[in-house]
Amino acid sequence: MTVAVGPAAPPSTVDRAAWAISAEGLYRSFGPKPVLQGLDLKVGWGERMVLLGPNGSGKTTLIRILAALSRPAGGRAFIGGFDVVEDVEKVRPLLGVLCHQSYLYRDLSVQENLTFYGQMYRVPDLKERSAYLLERVGLAPHADSLTRTLSRGMLQRLALARAILHRPAVILLDEPDTGLDLQSSAVLRDLLRELAEEGCGILLTTHQLERASTFADRVAILSRGRIVYQSDEPGGLDAESLAETYYRHAGR
């Protein structure tokens, strides 16, 4: 039996004429320090965009706003055509989010974590869905292990399975490759490709320039709260060219 990684069909509540992810003039500050300064960004359906930028450039703040975890001080953001502030109850079911926190329960087993989140999202084929994803992320042999016993990389792979368990239409990943070895990174790369092929809009941040070109259809560079570069064509930059472009726009 073939089980789709992402949505088997576009959710009827999503306006496919709208962008999967859209930010218009986003502004956010912490005290007197501006973090996002009139940021504009668009990600299409079936597209993987990698967002690069130095520490403090605003990557995590942007992800949190798009995930309806933080409010912008100015501008607007949309997920599938829904405003992340005004339509938050419509936005959240559409999202799969992986931030720096895993949102996993350490004293539950690997399987129990997926069962908990699957019941919360009312995943209809939860047993089969969980088994499939655990196999895909290489954790099937550890299904009964307590989550607190997992390595950093295994924990990250479980958090990824949690994020896509309910077949979200839009996926936001903040440095999901942190702590992943080469094999786990390949699992992430393949899952992202399949999710995009199934129509998901994906925005991912990373510090790993050498991995960004394998994760992305397009690349954007964020510096001092603004997008300072976007690639126009999918797959337009190899790893060496991407590094040169990054250092030219964001510095070393």
Tell me the strand order in the biggest sheet: 6-7-8-3-9-10
Give the overall silhouette. Answer: globular
Main beta sheet: 6 strands, mixed
CATH class of the domain at 21-104 and 167-250: Alpha Beta
Radius of gyration: 18 Å
**CATH topology label of the domain at 21-104 and 167-250:** Rossmann fold
| Extended strand count | 10
Write the element-wise H/E pattern from the N-terminal end onward.
EEEHEEHEHHHEHEHEEH
How is the quaternary structure best described?
A: single chain
Average pLDDT score: 89
Strand content: 15-25%
If you had to describe this structure to a student in words, what would you say it looks like?
This protein is of the alpha/beta class and 252 residues long. It has a domain of 168 residues: Rossmann fold (3-Layer(aba) Sandwich), CATH 3.40.50. It is built from eight helices and ten strands. Strands 6-7-8-3-9-10 form a six-stranded mixed beta sheet, sandwiched between helices. Strands 2-1-4-5 form a four-stranded antiparallel beta sheet. Helix 6 links the parallel strand 7 and strand 8. Helix 3 packs across helix 4 and helix 7 packs across helix 8. The longest helix is centred in the C-terminal third of the chain and has 16 residues. The N and C termini lie far apart (48 Å). The mean pLDDT is 89.
